[in-house]
Amino acid sequence: MVKDRGYLYEIQGLRAVAALMVAVYHIWIQRVSGGVDVFFVVAAFFIVGSLTRRERLSVGDVLDYYGKTLRRVVPGAAMVVSATILVSMWLMPDSMWRNQLKHALASIVFMENWSLALTATDYLQQGSPPSPFQQLWALAVQVQYYFLFPLMLWLSLKLDVHRGRGGHRYTACLLLAVTVVSLAYSVYITEKNQPWAYFDTFARAWEFSLGGLLALYATRITMSVPMAKLLGLVSLVVLLTFALFLDVSTLFPGVMASVPVLAAGGIIIAARNRCDIKLLNNRLFVWFGDISFSFYLWHWPLLSFYRYVTGEFDVGFVAGASILIAAGLLAFLTTWGAESPIRRSTLLSRRRIHAYAACAILMALPAGSLFAWYQDYQARSSEARGELEAFMNAPSAARDEIYPATLIASLDLPESSRDGCHQNQFGTEVLECEYGDPKADRTVVLAGGSHAQHWLAALKASAEKEGFHLITMTKGACMLSFEPHARYTVDASCEAWNRKVVDRLVALKPDLVFTTGTRVEGGEEVVPEGYLEVWRELGKAGVDVLALRDNPWFGFDVPECVDLSDQPSKACSVSRNAVLSDRSPTDGYHLPNVYFADLTDLFCQGQRCSPLRQHVLVYRDDHHITNTFSYMVAGRIARELHDAEMALDGGAGGDMVSAR
After folding, report:
1. Which end of the chain is more exposed for a tag (fewer CB within 10 A), N or C?
2. At what angle do helices 59-91 and 136-162 cross, to 10 degrees?
3. Domain boundary residue among 326, 352, 372?
4. What is residue 335's DSSP assignment?
5. Do 462 and 573 belong to one domain?
6. Is residue 60 part of a domain?
7. How would residue 318 be classed by pLDDT, with cut points 50, 70 and 90?
8. HSE (CB half, 13 Å, CA atoms) of 266?
9. 182 in the same domain as 80
10. Is the predicted pLDDT of residue 367 greater than 50, yes or no?
11. Is the whole-model pTM more than 0.85?
12. Quick one: 426 and 307 in the same domain?
């Protein structure tokens, strides 16, 4: 144990525990641990403690604090981001480049938490592989509060002095107000949109403000040494174990985040009362606390790159321990070789402008690496687009390659996503766009969610060839259904949008509505009741429907799998029985105005469903087909349209049994 009690060694040990918790949970348990929340509390404890020790806080003091913070944060961040970029260029699958360029840029400007929030709520990116820059979200949140808290404290201390109150009454009131407002917001936004809330800076503010309140009042909470040790040990046990028993991944950062926050607070209070917890104040953990945040930053890209190389998500004991050791060594080298010299430099601490300049130079390293990566991406993307265009013009002359290339597969979207004709998952306005011949007597409407929308290329090609009028009415994550609370309904706006679409279809009276007719729910392929309700209402208005059996959902990012496999047709195929029912759930149904079409043979041959059809990449993610594939099967879609119209004109809709 270290003897000098002027320094709270338990808090340094707490940092070490938090970093190890995060890494261990990421590597072997795949759960949220609460370790990051500990970092937030401790960071605010030191911010407020450092700045409120001054009788007055000037603007110059705030600027000096920024310089000091940059000298501590930037060296490690610059090293980690630069290395991650360079290794990503070498190891990362082409299919991930476009999105990871965005994450790299967000990391450099300390905004990765917002980049991840947007990714988590972007329907087209949901299910994307984790970013090797993902762990930098926590640093981004800390840096944002390293900037905001000194300004808040400057204002509150100015009021304290101006009003002659003395002490930190205004500071405490401000921190308490932030705690109450942010916690209320955190509970609200976590319930409404947890993937966004997890990375939301404002949903985390209460964790920082509580750490700040501890800095002001922890010294006023006194207890005996045995009681302090009991509090410290109980808090440590709760911190280490609560996430083992509760999977809180979808509950943070609401009320449940108070568990690690309060546990960290308990340890800080216990440390102030000489708790003497040997697990936290021994020399090894105190030393590791100095490199703990660099360790946190390094462990995640190492884990990500291990998974890229091996293709395995699960990490064994030996591999996981190797990642921990490597992260520790890199953290030590980063701290010793970059962070400490910059942080302790007399020249840089003497004048803040020198500190700012040095940190700007350091951040030029990842910025330059990112620019080189972006240039390479642009050149290769341009070449891939040229090859795709040549293939579309002359498929028979295709070389032994994949179209579209995995590098640009995520961008191979329906035209309506590029020209603003596809409603997002939150809007209610019905966006209509027209293709084919607008003066034609025959009108087909493409309506529904993205699984209807991704057939646009095939329908447009058919409209142009056969001379009919095609109108689109599509919306992200919103199928054509009167079932507002279904599991597949992402946002409440879907119900209002569907009502408007059906009203518009009834008024328009097209010859045919093209939409999806099945859905996988709870592992079972079904025809949702909400779909049937819409079809019945359209039937009353004399509107016919072509209901297409949904395509197989692969459950993994197909372009990434293709990138990582020497034999993607075999390695990335899935069993038909695993993704589809033996018989289409539409078999046996009958509605006089509905024709059921099944294109399963385009995706599955025999008992396997393949990611490739000859040279064409079928999927651009785990369940949306590429625009290229849609275009290449236009002939089949045209035949289905013809068969549907023939059958419905003859009064032979699908076979029908009870809808329930």
Report:
1. C
2. 170
3. 372
4. I
5. yes
6. yes
7. very high
8. 20
9. yes
10. yes
11. yes
12. no
> SS3 helix, strand, coil % of the chain, rounded to 5?
60, 10, 30
Q: How many domains does the chain have?
A: 2
Both 360 and 500 in one domain: the answer is: no
Give exposure, 537-568, as e/b (b: 16+ Cβ within 10 Å): ebbeeebbbbbbbbbbbbebbbbbbbbbeeeb
Cis check: omega of the bond before 130, within 30 degrees of 0:
no
Phi-psi region of 110 (alpha: psi -120 to 50; beta: other; left: phi over 0): left
Asked whether residue 125 falls in the same domain as residue 215, the answer is yes
* DSSP string across 162-189: HTT--TTHHHHHHHHHHHHHHHHHHHHH
Q: Which domain holds residue 438?
A: 409-649
Strands 612-613 and 616-617, bridge-based pairing: antiparallel
Cα–Cα distance, 527 to 519 (Å, whole number): 6
Which amino acid is it at 139? L
Q: Is 271 found in the same domain as 135?
A: yes
For residue range 427-467, what is the model confidence (pLDDT) as tens digits? 999 999 999 999 999 999 999 999 999 999 999 999 999 99
Q: Is residue 387 part of a domain?
A: no
Identify which of 13, 14, 28, 10 has the alpha carbon closest to the alpha carbon of residue 261.
Answer: 14
Contact, 100 vs 134, CB < 8 A?
A: no
Q: Where does 388-451 show beta strands of DSSP type E? A: 422-423, 433-436, 443-448
Q: Is residue 313 part of a domain?
A: yes
* Alpha-carbon dihedral sign for residues 161, 179, 38, 261: positive
Tell me the torsion sign for CA atoms 318, 319, 324, 330.
positive
Confirm whether 267 is domain-assigned. Answer: yes
pLDDT tens digits, one per residue of 50-62: 888 877 788 888 9
Exposure string of 502-514, with b = 16+ CB inside 10 Å and e = fewer, is: bebbeeeebbbbb
- Say yes or no: 339 and 447 in one domain: no
Residues 230-275: pLDDT tens digits? 999 999 999 999 988 888 888 899 899 999 999 999 999 999 998 8
Tell me the residue type at 287. Answer: W
Q: Which residues of 2-25 are buried (b: 16+ CB within 10 A; e: fewer)?
A: eeeeeebbbbbbbbbbbbbbbbbb
Among the listed residues 570, 576, 575, 572, the one whose alpha carbon sits nearest the alpha carbon of residue 559: 572
- Helix, strand or coil for residue 82? helix
Residue 516: CATH number of its domain = 3.40.50.1110
Positive or negative: CA dihedral 141, 144, 147, 149: negative
Do residues 555 and 572 lie in contact, with contact meaning Cβ atoms separated by under 8 Å? no
